[in-house]
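pasting input
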Amino acid sequence: MARKPKSSAELSEGVTRRALMISVGMGAMVAALGARMHRLGVSQSDEYRLLAEENRINIRLLPPARGQLFDRAGVLIAGNEQNYRVVITKEDASKAIGGVQMVLDRLCQIIPMTDDDVAEALKALERNSPFVPIPVAERLSWQDFSEVAINGPALPGITPEVGLSRHYPLVGDFAHVVGYVGPVSEKDLEGVEKPDPLLLIPRFQIGKIGVERWLESDLRGAAGTRQIEVNAVGRVMRELSREEGIAGADITLTLDARVQNFVQARLGEESAACVIMDVQTGDLVAAASAPSFDPNLFVRGIASADYKVLIEDDHRPLANKVVQGAYPPGSTFKMVTALAALAAGVIDTETRVSCPGYYESGGRRFHCWRAGGHGSVDLERSLMESCDVYYYDIAQRVGIDKVAEMGRQLGLGIRHDLPMSAIAEGNMPDKAWKARVHNAEWRIGDTINAAIGQGYVLTSPLQLAVMTSRIATGKLIEPRLIKAVSGVETSIAPAPSLGVSAEKLAAVQRGMFAVMNGASGTARGSRVADETMIMCGKTGTAQVRNISAAERETGVVRNEDLPWNRRDHALFVGYAPAENPRYAVAVVVEHGGGGSAAAAPIARDALLSALTGGIPPLSAYPAEQRPAIEARFNELSLRFDKLGSQAPTKT
Amino acid sequence: MSFFENRTATAPTGLAKLLHFHWPLVLVVCAIATLGWLMLYSIAGGDFARWAQPQMNRYFIGLAAMFWVGLMPIWFWNLTAWPAYAIGIVLLLYVEFFGAVGMGAQRWIDLGFMMLQPSELMKVALIMALASYYAKLDDRLISHPFWVILPVLAIVAPTVLVLMQPNLGTAVMTLAVGGAMMFAAGVSLWYFGAVIGIAAGAVTAIFLTRGTVWQLLHDYQYRRIDTFLDPTADPLGAGYNIIQAQIALGSGGWSGKGFMQGTQSRLNFLPEKHTDFIFTTLGEEFGYLGAISLLVLYTLVLVFLVWAAVRNRDRFSQLLIIGVAVNFFLYIAVNLSMVMGMAPVVGVPLPLLSYGGSATLVVMIAFGLVHSAIVHRPR
């Protein structure tokens, strides 16, 4: 179809038509853009303004000062010290030529840092967001700290800052009771639904064991907040406002730092535990476990070599033997058997048993510790001389279930709730227990062993102290460790009666008096001379091995000739003053040999220390022992000055 | 309706041509560019040397280029249209194999003083080529299938090359500009209807078959399309820019937080705040009034261009101006709808405002072509 070409005017008109169509489309789009601008900038502006504020302002946490721990007189046990430290921020450090590695290398030239420290810092940097400050070095000297500050320009991303860090001024004295703090571990956060945001701060320290752990919620306090303006990468531009947190609660313990220090020193390097309890209130005055360790090492992050030494030590310095240890109580258990028999009415104070040195039952022979026997013994003498046969006999008469019941009533085989870690329940066996646990019938031999605190019976030093307090007072005393939280005293409910008649208790108490003060008392060597502080007690020597018949024939090997870990445990429980008891004590010296020789002297020193509030006066000791005692005290390295000095108080 | 227009039938010569430039257009363009420097100064936190200074330098180079191009006779540009197109293709092939890689795509040629994006240059060359093609083509053949296929090939070739870089935004713009020019030249509406119909059918088929055994794409490809279409579903990833941009714009309110007072952009919440997302800073600091003012300035430019095209009786000039106008419009439409969350994020700058050499230079050269057409129009 031939058609004439259009004129240029016609063509131009065509373009114009199409151009106008395009213009309409463009106009519509421009209108849409304008409408959108209106919607964002005018209609919904408030909403977006709010979002912009949230974007800009970030809330950072301010760690609160951790609550401090004091002894009952106000001596600082756990405090906070200024900690000069250096933190690194990856975001800034990585901008440097050579990056984070270079910055750390330079830092190493200024302050002492091990390769481990550097590796740990690098690991932490990897785990956290680039803007989170990661501590690289803590507890710097002022010299090192200022050198880092001066070299700031050469160390991009490195900030010196002052923080607070836990400090235990009394070093090892309260290591077991108070425990220590350490950085939050992944395990700590496991299973926690919504963890306290403080826990997410790198290297934030929380209580790991002991009081620090069990009273963590009181001690931690609440985080403060800091409103800061940040950019999208989280970089802090400036601080807008600051609200300090609530410091953790200060806690006063029932312990006495001076007594604790004395007792700890007195235990020395023995593997031993000693606990002193106020028999009226249940307050623990001292709870020492030896050997001890420096909890400050753990706060700083203990070197693996140091940790290995602690772990591999056969004296187990990390264990809190006061509550964790479970030892056969040995003869210290005899009061329980005696009270059970008295309460059941199977014996009275006059009942006599003949001891030929052994006891025969069911064709088996059970030996008394004295091969020749004690002859005819009554209750008082059975305790004074610790005759085993007497207890074999009366235990048979009263039966194990009654003995176990009395044991539990006196606080054995029960977990006493204290803010300490790994509290042992011990064991107070009876027929049902054996059937349940060993699926076996209770035998006569079991009763005989249990009668003198051997066999299945296990107790912790704390339980022994509770037992002694209850015997001394006739009341159900419960142990207490926390005296006050934030200055508010924790209440003590008046202890109910034990339910054993006063005269029966008095008979046992007389026996315990005789142990220390009777002419043939097993602990006569550890008696107190001072009339106002006369002590009652009971020795115990717990076998940790079986003595075979053959061995008995040839003569029992003496303890000193055995390897350390096969020797007997030495135990002692006691209280003073005899007339109006104030403090009870329990001492266990692991593999220490005989209770009268190894444990009783410690118990006497500890009780006298508690009664006098420091180092016992020599006048309390029998005259002939004083030179030796003085010499021993002079050898002790004590934290507080000798007698009469003032304890440091709260600052 | 050039302001200093005289009614003489003879075309002006020499520097007298300058009197026939479209000075209102030049003024509006300069106003927009000035706004850009202000924003760049503010975003740099008061640092003039960081972005504002280099951008000013480039603008003045661009302005000089505009005057030079504008002073050259229009027939010269008609003659160089296809050679320019050929050079564009060669440059695109060059970057495909030797180009510098930036932002994960091969798009740049390092000229030393600036990085050149051939894809930007290519669009102008394509506009010239198509205008030239339709200026010569017998109007009876415009809708003849053979003569439709040729320009379509001329459009598709650079589009594919740009897509391979990959630069989706510019590829779409190239396609759209080419399509608009064919539309303006008078190609039968049936073709456009057919293309739109086929495209719509394909998209429908792709989405309708999703989840069935006959689905046309892999699952991960669908998921990519999802995040592309709705970035807000991934607020810390793909949607981050968009959400932050909208917060910045919205928080500006009616009159903005004031010059240099924007918190979103100054505090680094916005990435690419000085390039593709520069409009957010304007919206935050000058508010709705500032944003609308910019839109008005842009609209003025478009009105001037369309009016100039309508008034011109030279077919090459008409089509050239319309191409430039559509190109300019597409920059604005794509960039603003992306920044305001109306369209997916594709890398398209805001002309005369965004920091960057290629777009500024190319836009100014295009305006130079427009001026050449205005100055040398038949009287």
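fyi The first strand of chain A starts at residue 57 and ends at 62.
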